[in-house]
Amino acid sequence: MTTPTDPPPLMSELRECLSGVRILDLSTYLPGPLATLLLGDLGAEVLKIEGPTGDPMAELGPRDENGAGIYYEAINAGKTVRRMNLKDAATRHQFLALVQLADIVLETFRPGVMERLGVGYGTLAAVNPRLIYCSLNGYGSQGPHSQEPGHDANYLALAGALHRNGTPPRLFEPPVADCTGSLFAVISLLAALRRRDRTGRGCSIDIALADVVGPAQTFPIADYGKRGHCPSPDDSTYMNGGAAYYRLYATADSRHVVLGAIEQKFWNNFCHAANRPEWGERNRETLPQLDLISDVADLFAGLTLSQCVTRFGHADCCVTPVLTLQEAIDSTHCRNRRLVRRSSSGDLQALFPAWINGSPPDERSPPHTTTAGFEGNVDV
């Protein structure tokens, strides 16, 4: 596997987007740190505040040759890390001095923890009325589950998302609620910054990971609202395998392809490339399309993955090989887009997925520790 290595660039136009914005990140594990990682890609300065023993994420997952946690290093790249014991009055005073300089505070504690530490939103807003405060936790600041622990699978189960994706239900990787929660935090914080530009006022944002899957389920929620119908996990919709034209299929060499020919024109192109013109109207059969699924499965089962790519790859019919991660990273698409690259320090990074004015994003520097504050404020 080869991946491009770029020389350290000047500040990209992507980083100019949030240049000057300062974030205090009190989060751990994945959802909060992923949000601030992306905001850092946009140019924000992120100072990650960890407790005296650090972020537990550093102890999870595989290790590199120096014994460092690979996941922790990746999710905190580009950030400055400072350990502070907020239970200590003098340290808390130092933290409040940092809050005066910050634009955003993001935390992922259970409701009430920040207040017990003496740094709840009311206290922070009194120090800095322009502060934007984001709480990103499992079940939100209020409600029957607010004090319960949880992880991605728990949130998906509570949201009704696991139920309709197979019998028995299947877990997801990457974690859907965790990553979606990160994105909603980023969206909310960007909107709050825009609001502050207009009004001069900060605000408090409350995001529950158990809630963020809701907008992603707009279709089934609307269906239930209109017809009282809940999709079953038994291949009853085109999104969960009930349609022959939108489904995973096994190949002769035990690989898989995805057929995503939802639109009639793409289905027609598929039928033509498959030499099965008689299937042209069968995509309108009632779901689940068990007979048609069987016929299409037999077709793919007679072809290797390479043969599928040769036959359907340029037929404009939404047939895609299911790649391994290594194959995906080494693909012509990935190399051309330059959004997964090796940094100058040798780390393989999945970068912010946007080009600005024809330029890809910058690489991230490794996380580094400090006993100081934001850049230019070393005495805080």
Q: Can you put this structure into words, describing what you see?
A:
This protein is of the alpha/beta class. The chain folds into two domains: 13-216 and 339-369, Crotonobetainyl-coa:carnitine coa-transferase, domain 1 (Rossmann fold), CATH 3.40.50; 238-250 and 256-321, formyl-coa transferase, domain 3, CATH 3.30.1540. The protein is 34% helix and 14% strand. It is built from 15 helices and twelve strands. It has helices spanning 13-16, 31-41, 70-75, 89-101, 113-116, 121-127, 152-158, 176-199, 213-216, 218-227, 264-273, 290-301, 305-312, 325-329, 332-337; strands at residues 22-26, 45-50, 80-83, 104-107, 132-137, 203-208, 246-250, 256-260, 319-321, 340-342, 348-350, 368-369. The strands form three sheets. Strands 6-5-4-1-2-3-12 form a seven-stranded parallel sheet, with helices on both faces. Strands 7-8-9 form a three-stranded antiparallel sheet, with helices on one face. A two-stranded antiparallel ribbon has the order 10-11. The relative contact order is 0.14.
